[in-house]
Fold this protein.
Amino acid sequence: MLGVCVYFLINNNFVLTGLFIVLIWISDLLDGFFARMRNEISELGKLIDPLADKIVIITLVIILLLKGIIPEYFVIIIISRDIIILLGGLYLKYRKNIILQSNWIGKITVFSIGFTLILSIFNFASKIGQFGNYFFYHCEITELLYIIMLFISIVLTFLSLFSYFQRFKETK
């Protein structure tokens, strides 16, 4: 689904891009829900699911940055967080044979980042009139929501990074 989402994003079809981001989001939530419900949580799943989230987010933020839709500082913060968590996770896996599962603050952060990305696309598309005249005339609301979510995502990013750092220290 990420490939299709990227295709639509590159070709400036922001409506379908937003739809596919929502589908990626829902499939990720359902995958985790059913794995827990059926008690099928595996060590491999603990590695692959967060890695897939990171690949999706990093791919989308880079393209959105290149298109001038999101600010550079946001991309740097998001990618830095993901790299730090990935390196810490690899260290624990290969030095201690421990795989830390995503925690609630990490999941909320990823959700928040995803919502911010959707709002950034919606905000940009409404400014260029892709959603019709109604949203074009009301783009101040989408811009305000986007700015609020951008701030919330940054705060949650630092909180989740701190949380993972605490968990990392506890395993040493």
Observations:
- Helices lie at 2-10, 14-37, 43-66, 72-96, 104-127, 133-137, 139-171.
- DSSP finds seven helices and no strands in the chain.
- Residues 42-171 form one domain.
- The chain has one domain: 42-171.
